Amino acid sequence: MSVLQRFEKRLEGLVEGAFAKVFKGVVHPVEILNAMQREAEAHKAILAGGRTLVPNRYVIDLSPYDHSRLAPYAAALAQELAQSQAEFIGEQAWTVYGDVIVEIERGEGLDTGMFRVTAEVYTGGDVAPVSAPGGYDAGPPAYPAYDQGGGYGPPPGQGGGRNVRLVSGDGRTYPLQMGSTVIGRGDQANLRLPDVGISRRHARLDFDGGQVVLTDLGSTNGTMVNGQRVSAVALNPGDMIQLGTTTLTFRVDG
């Protein structure tokens, strides 16, 4: 079942069909999701290491009439759109910074049935907006700043970044690059581990050059750091990460 088909299936049960009536004859959610997918495709940027960065924040402007009709369902629709867009991005093995965010707003000047999608790379504070028609504004994509006061040193190329890596129990070393690294046993994982206790997309590491944040991606067996189950945590040197039966030690050199 495709992302669009799963999205439509979830919409069928939303508010017991009332949602579908709201969109009868005007803009339809599937059209919005299609446009979001096109925006991601059109505004890809290649990161170091060959990974592909796409926008993670999508602002949907609806006409005043459509927006007023949608208001009771806006939050639910935004959540469904965000989930489906995240699934689409995952299937393409693209990279985003943080979670996929969808916001639905009132677009003045839009006729009924019309909508506008604006996509951007959102890092939790700074935004790298998409410029039409040729991609991102000049300059490299911003990286999220998880800890302005701490960290492990400046980003590479800015005063000598440090060697940040994971070390497995059998001595294997996995260097971390700037951006996001997905750990799992599936084809879409950047760091693949042959452990049946690990989900296909188990956890994500976000490295901004100053600090690494570990986020569990809704894994079946959970993610442990120093014996404690976590959803998201900033890592410190020496932290022990447990995924399935695999233990990884977080190391910072230099």
UniProtKB/TrEMBL annotation:
Keywords associated with the record: Phosphoprotein
Is Phosphoprotein a UniProt keyword of this protein?
A: yes
Q: Does the keyword tRNA processing apply?
A: no
PROSITE patterns referenced in this protein's UniProt entry, alphabetically? FHA_DOMAIN
Cite the FHA domain residue spans from the record: 181-230
Which N-terminal stretch is annotated as signal sequence?
Answer: none
SUPFAM superfamilies tied to this protein: SMAD/FHA domain
Q: What is this protein called?
A: DUF3662 and FHA domain-containing protein
